[in-house]
Amino acid sequence: MERSAYDRFFELEQHHFWRRAKRQLVLEWAENYLPPQPDRRILDIGGACSLITKELERFGTVVCLEADLATVELARERLGVDIRQGVFPEVVPEGNFDVITMLDVLEHIADDRKALSGARQLLKPEGLLMITVPALRWLWSGHDLALHHYRRYHRAELVCLLRDTGFRILRVSYYTSLLLPVLAIQRLLSKLRRRTGTPQYDVRVPAKPLNRLFAAVMSAERCLLRRINLPLGSSLVAAAKPD
Prior knowledge:
Number of strands: 7
Largest sheet: 7 strands, mixed
Strand order of the largest sheet: 3-2-1-4-5-7-6
Radius of gyration: 17 Å
Number of helices: 9
Helix content: 40-55%
Distance between the termini: 33 Å
Oligomer: single chain
Shape: globular
Order of helices and strands: HHEHEHEEHEHHEHHE
Structural class: alpha/beta
């Protein structure tokens, strides 16, 4: 990712409606799929910019693996979590894990199939994989370039990829669905005014009234997701187990 993205992530994690909503969704799904277990080991891959690493401690002991050294140092200072520096899947922590999370990580890895196969090898036989990825190729924009994405996914592609790398899918759904029209317009405008040079990560916390409104929309969407899978959205969330 561009440095402009890394440097802003901690502020966004605390206040931006979308990042807070994603954490709430992931934690809710984790509660649904993880029975009580006192000695659970959790590996959070690429989550050093995210408060989710700290919040996952309610489910067990968390190890975080992060590629960017400056982010590792900042996360150690701010979150006080067990975080290791390294590029997955070339660098992996020792041992096996009950849970692995890859939250908006897979799209940053050139060989996503190799990455998921590596995660499969690290998971215990009854382990849980939880991932989120950006969705819909037609939403590709300078935002993806600034974040050094290799791809965006469609649901069928993600399902096939998980199955081909040895996972049994528990659930896959689109999310950020109710706000998809707003996001699509924003990305279209971004393409129309695209400038030359290095793409910059330009996401900021919206004005408070708008941030609260969008947070309420995401909360309503999370209620829908308790009952149904959503047919379209700017992101995908998946839970799977080793097959």
